[in-house]
Amino acid sequence: MKRRTLLASAAFAATLGTAALAQDTTKACFVYVGPIGDGGWTYQHHQGALAVKEAYGDKVEIAWQESVPEGADAERVLTQMALSGCDIIFTTSFGYMDATNSVAAKFPNIKFEHSTGYKREHPNVSTYNARFYEGRAVVGHIAGKMTQTNKIGYIASFPIPEVIMGINSYYHHAKKVNPDVELVVTWAYTWFDPAKEADAARAMLDQGVDVITAHTDSTAPLAEIAKQDGKAWGFGQASDMATFMTNDDGTPGPRVASIIDEWSPYYVKRVGALMDGTYEQVDSWAGMPEGEVVIGEMNDAIPADVKAEAQAMIDAITAGEYHPFTGPINKADGSPWLAEGETASDGDLLGMGFYIEGITAEIPN
Amino acid sequence: MDFGAINPILLVASLMVSATPILLAAIGEMVVEKSGVLNLGVEGMMITGAVVGFVVALNSGSPMLGFAAAALAAAVLSLSFGILTQYLLSNQVATGLGLTLVGLGLSALIGKPYEGMKAPSLQDLHIPLLGDIPVIGPMFFQHDIMVYVSLALVAAVWATLKYTRFGLILRAVGESHDAAHALGYKVVRIRMMAIFFGGACSGLGGAYLSLVRVPQWTEGMTAGAGWIALAIVVFASWRAGRIVVGAYLFGGITVLQLNLQAAGAQVPVALLSASPYLITIIVLVTISARGMHGAPASLGRPFHASH
Amino acid sequence: MIHLVKRPQPSRFWTAVTPILAVLLTMVVGGFMFAALGKPPLEAIRTIFWDPLFHEQFAAYSRPQLLIKAGPLILIAIGLSIGFRAGIWNIGAEGQYIMGAIAGAGVGLAFYPMESFIIFPLMVIAGALGGWAWGMIPAVLKTKFGTNEILVSLMLVYVAESVLASVSSGLLKNPDGMGFPGSRNLQQYDSAANLEIIPNTGMHWGVVAAFVAVIFAYVLLTRHIRGFHIQLAGQAPRAARFAGVRPARIILFCLGLSGALAGMAGLFEVAGPSGQITIDFNSGYGFTAIIVAFLGRLHPVGILLAGLLMALTYIGGELAQLMLGLPGASIQLFQGMLLFFLLATDVFTNYRIRFGQGEAA
Question: Which residue of A104, B124, B277, C251 has the lowest C-beta tally within 10 Å?
């Protein structure tokens, strides 16, 4: 009986889906997990949505919904979007994965794009992500060069491959330029809790850490670092966080650079492809070459030579000449991972569940 | 676990700052509950304080003015709860939850234009003499003014409840509103004053987050701090002194586990984050098992003069 | 001076009129708010209250969704309302909901990938037991030590949230989930899935359970001696004691029942619309249900209607965001206002408004 239910509802929904498609303008819709005002993850996705409108003007219409909980509510919101005539729907959080696929099954004529997931169960579902580890490599290099205490920090959110990848990339590049560097990781178990993020930053500063990058969304760690009066540094995360680039007295602020999630090129490209009929299902994992991972302006706290080196690394990654995970790299337990000159496969990275050699902590389970 | 790598001076200094928002909100809520009213809307009042404090500080350039405005705005918001529960006799639990909804929604709308901006923050004081004492100085006497205001507020509440006539009346109203009414006290008026005070304190707590702790405005930035304040009141079994212990314990456990992590220790994060609540339940059970009903006897019960 | 005189009986007239009055007031004030935000007020209000029910494009889908959204709210609120009538304040339904979901999903996942008709009923029982057990903690503490159940049940919500965070990245984590926290999706496991019983009606087992609970509560409160005892315990505790009502039994019964219903709601949600246990699987149903219980005036039929009204503002609010670009926060504020107006106008039901000098006060 349950199987019949599934088929029947799919047929029902398919008839509805086709009715919504006959329109002149293309409608692109976005589902956000947080409020647009989070200043980080959701904010950047919304900037991408606005870029689509900017690029195509009257030919597109955009609609969005913020703070959509993952789970049952997401499925309903997606269906309502499909019914409202959206031609392409971007679902911008990992937790929307199953909802995206199940709604996509009912609306075969509507394109679904799921961010940071891996399931493409239907031909109308694409997935996209960005190679944030490329950004972590650059800031890792800067961190390794700038630290005076040889202790660098990483405020981690949850122990998932995406975050572990970032930690490894950050540490690997700091270690390359500073063999004495030591990494401190704290797990906040949240993506967004400004007070807790500030506490995490402070705990690390108290331990003598003087360069911190965060995998959480708020600016609170930077504000905490600012209280060190120029003796510690941090990076913008997800958005540029430019307010912390310069202090009120004009001296360089605590935010020395930033890793910006730039979804605009991807969104503009995909909506454009849909409009001119070249749209195809993809599994996109783009980075600096495509302009999806951007290093925000480096401020003058970074010495000129370090700036130049960082820029050279950005250029090399952008040109496709350098992969941040190039061997020799061993795993934390000492076993070999990448041989001399070998680069990490995407599969290895996407399922990453280990630290690289030199990181003494263990990944919590 | 490895405590050796943690500097106790810095730990104490850091937990004093991180506990201040919940301390402020909790001392206010305690006064409200002492008067026999349960206001579950602390989260909504805190975040209203956070946004109003931020906006006013940004526009006026004065953080102190921001704090004052935050206290006033949250107190005025809490009056809506007061009017509903005291004059229109609505259920306190439901009204408190409604207040949270209203506060979260309203603050987000007010704060939209101010996202991503930087407000003037408070300077840390360096209290002469006391601040220079080794160990003790950096632990206790080098914080911003609001840390001391929060502690002074606790002391004032303690003294008022214990030694003044007004404190006595307030407690009487919370223990038995019918008896207090029979004695000729204006139950509703006293409760409205308590609610107003509770709102003002929550507002200060919220503003401390947006002006000192974080300092920036982002939607939903209180992230549950108001609910923790409610737990602290229970933990403290409605005693002002223990509010400080409770706030520093709740704040301290977060700070401690992050410090332990930063020091390289493996920490059972889930267990630690649940532990303050478990301790609170144990405290509750202990005081009730001893036959003392920690909670004010009229807590949450509606009062209507013509019973 | 205005003052209030308690009615001997709640007014039937005002019981019926106040919800309508409150909705109208919310529409007026909400309309001003939407206008202040630069959105068309009438259209916004129509989108929230009318479109989910009658819009040609959406209604066929939205109407069943009302049941899906209202189902858990009603199921939990019914359990809570029985306790509230007895003066037992369980405000920790959110925690009981979480524990029910964890227990039920845990049983289902333990059988994976075996297929059998027995699995789903077992999950329902486990869900109810999980919620019941979590509700019994404040109940036992109250009967043994006189500990305040409001506070214990609230504290247990946070403990349950920590347990949820722990199991979703540990015990119940999907082994094929690429290391992400979160369990397997029960919707994709036939024997454990709580799918619609009749396609496109929104009727899944949780909605059925909610309707059954409404009828059960109605019978209990109007036809059964225990229901009478419960109400007596709430209205006149001393009289109840003289009538031979044992308070401990009432406490255990009410907290156990509301816990079990909340736990079942959690299970139906995790096995159905939501699909999986994740770190933030709970979306506040346990707290919203308190609101629903009061909106429904603690009456089973009232709760049924209040649950549907609440669901309408959620779904209509989503449509208003999508179609008119209203910020999510404005919908939250709108719901808060609706609640405030309902609570405020409720005074007419139980009290007469008198002008001039009062004789009693």
Answer: B124
C-proximal residues of A, 172-231, CB under 8 Å: 189
Do B116 and A244 count as a contact with CB atoms less than 8 A apart?
Answer: no
The architecture in CATH of the region B8-289 reads Orthogonal Bundle (1.10)
Contacts of C185 (CB under 8 A, 6+ apart): A98, C174, C275, C276
Residue segments in chain A with a per-residue pLDDT below the cut of 70: 1-23, 365
Question: How near does any CA of chain C get to the CA of B138, in Å?
Answer: 34
Q: What confidence score (pLDDT) does residue A29 get?
A: 95
Quick check: B84 and C156 CB within 8 A? no
Q: Closest chain A residue to B213 measured between Cα atoms?
A: A195
Instruction: List chain B residues with CB under 8 Å of C165.
Output: 270, 273
pLDDT at A190: 82
Tell me the C-alpha distance between C279 and A230, whole Å: 37
Helices (H), chain C: 12-36, 41-49, 51-54, 59-85, 93-111, 119-145, 149-168, 205-223, 225-235, 237-242, 247-271, 285-295, 300-324, 328-345, 347-350
pTM of the model: 0.87
CATH code, A2-130? 3.40.50.2300
What domains are defined for chain C? Answer: 40-325 (1.10.3470)
Give the model confidence (pLDDT) of B41-70 as tens digits: 999 999 999 999 999 999 998 999 999 999
Mean pLDDT by 10 residues, chain C (361 residues): 76 82 90 90 90 85 90 95 90 94 93 86 95 96 86 88 87 79 82 79 87 93 84 79 83 95 95 86 87 88 93 91 87 88 84 65 40
Angstroms from B143 CA to nearest CA on chain C: 31
Structure confidence at residue A156 (pLDDT): 92
Per-residue pLDDT tens digits for A215-234: 988 888 998 898 888 899 99
Kind and range of the H or E run holding B79: helix B63-82
- What subunits make at least 3 CB pairs under 8 angstroms with B? A, C
Minimal Cβ distance to A84: which of C57, C197, C278: C57
Measured between alpha carbons, how far is residue A347 from residues A6, A96, A342, A344, C22 in Å?
33, 21, 14, 8, 57
Phi/psi for B65 (5° steps) reads -65, -35
Beta bridge partners, A214, equal A155
Nearest to C274 among A35, A71, A159 (CB): A71
> Domain segments of chain B: what residues?
8-289
Query: Chain C contacts of A98, Cβ < 8 Å?
Result: 185, 187-188, 275-276
Could you tell me the fold of the domain covering A132-261+291-350?
Rossmann fold (3.40.50)
The angle at the Cα of C112, spanning C109 to C115, to the nearest 5 degrees, equals 125
- pLDDT, residue B3, reads 53
Instruction: Return the pLDDT at A3.
Output: 37
Mutation choice for A interface testing from B216, B255, B257 by most A CBs within 10 A: B216
Q: How far out from the chain centre does Cα A326 lie? A: 21
> Which residues 6+ apart lie within 8 Å of A120 measured at CB?
A101, A126, A127, A281, A283
H or E stretch covering B226? helix B225-235
C-chain CB neighbours of B91 within 8 Å are: 294, 343
Tell me the two tokens of residue C121: 């009923």
**Confidence at residue C216, expressed as pLDDT on a 0 to 100 scale:** 93
Residue of C nearest to A70 (CA): C281
Where in the sequence of chain A do the CATH 3.40.50.2300 domains occur?
2-130, 132-261+291-350
Optimal mutation site among C18, C80, C332, interface B, most CBs of chain B within 10 A: C332
